[in-house]
Design goal:
Length: 157
């Protein structure tokens, strides 16, 4: 699993503390959560960013919440909102009635939407909160474009 497919805000240290507080091994957590022991170990070690599905399963196994394992950021993007809800792009796509590719483009700020209220419902937030997160993703996209389009002067004047 690549870091870009997972939830970078995931708190591996909290997972470890909660698992140890229950006296469980990684293997026992994996069985309860319905994930592989390797996935549990990687999530706990912080070597990968677990997917929304994995975080949701771990949170349920520990009688915790996704919000607890994925702390809030000052300005969440749509991807961050989706991760906090513990759903995948596929889940959002199915709820909104679009392709996963379109969800990705919207999350990356490459496309707007005609019915933001429907999208907000899929992310489990208000229309205003969804719009703020979309704008944050849009601004991130602008920064990436500007960074790529700056000419490299190679140290010459």
């Amino acid at each position: 699993m690549s870091p870009s497919s997972g939830i970078p805000q995931f708190r591996a240290d909290l997972l470890r503390a909660k698992r140890q507080a229950r006296g469980w091994s990684c293997e026992q957590l994996a069985v309860i959560a319905g994930i592989t022991p390797g996935t549990a170990r990687k999530a706990e070690s912080g070597t990968v960013c677990p997917s929304p599905r994995v975080v949701k399963a771990i949170a349920a196994a520990l009688d915790s919440s996704v919000d607890e394992l994925v702390p809030d950021e000052a300005r969440l993007t749509l991807r961050g909102l989706r991760a906090r809800r513990g759903v995948t792009q596929r889940d959002v796509a199915a709820e909104v009635g679009v392709s996963t590719g379109m969800v990705s483009k919207v999350e990356n700020g490459k496309h707007g939407v005609k019915r933001p209220e429907r999208w907000a419902a899929a992310y489990g937030v208000s229309r205003q909160r969804w719009t703020e997160a979309w704008e944050a993703g849009r601004e991130n996209q602008r920064r990436r474009i500007r960074a790529r389009s700056r000419p490299d002067d190679g140290g010459t004047q």
